[in-house]
């Protein structure tokens, strides 16, 4: 068993209640296999996003992506913060997620971010099914990205995402990130976020 395979086993969620296997196995690595992500791989991921639920079926999500070695990849990488730049170039694909801010009749779409999240949830599970990892990032300069990609008014970048097949060598990461990669996963208990009948009610 390789070092990375052992890490993958250790990353399986220590769940309190049984959940779908792909959800247990999902985590966000900072190293990736050298196996390239193909255009058909990306089309399958976007197809999963396409069939996510959305308010009134408005489908407000938008994506810009680039393969390593392409201009789009470099533009996205240049918009990442310094921390994420320290590892994200391990990924064969970089992507930005965005949402449409208005409804078709011009009103604020309060649910657009929720719907983008549902699309990314679909994409993440489809990726896991194919052995592809998605690492979602908040650390990027969205204002710079809006200008670099000449995003039209009414659309807003939300996150950056590193995409690649699971695998890779820990030695590609700085030492502090190697430790994080091997650290134990933690989640707050259900009693901190799921309440029956009354806010903060403990079940």
From TrEMBL:
<dbReference type="Pfam" id="PF00881">
    <property type="entry name" value="Nitroreductase"/>
</dbReference>
<comment type="similarity">
    <text>Belongs to the nitroreductase family.</text>
</comment>
<dbReference type="InterPro" id="IPR000415">
    <property type="entry name" value="Nitroreductase-like"/>
</dbReference>
<dbReference type="InterPro" id="IPR029479">
    <property type="entry name" value="Nitroreductase"/>
</dbReference>
<keyword id="KW-0560">Oxidoreductase</keyword>
<feature type="domain" description="Nitroreductase">
    <location>
        <begin position="23"/>
        <end position="66"/>
    </location>
</feature>
<feature type="domain" description="Nitroreductase">
    <location>
        <begin position="81"/>
        <end position="165"/>
    </location>
</feature>
<protein>
    <submittedName>
        <fullName>Nitroreductase family protein</fullName>
    </submittedName>
</protein>
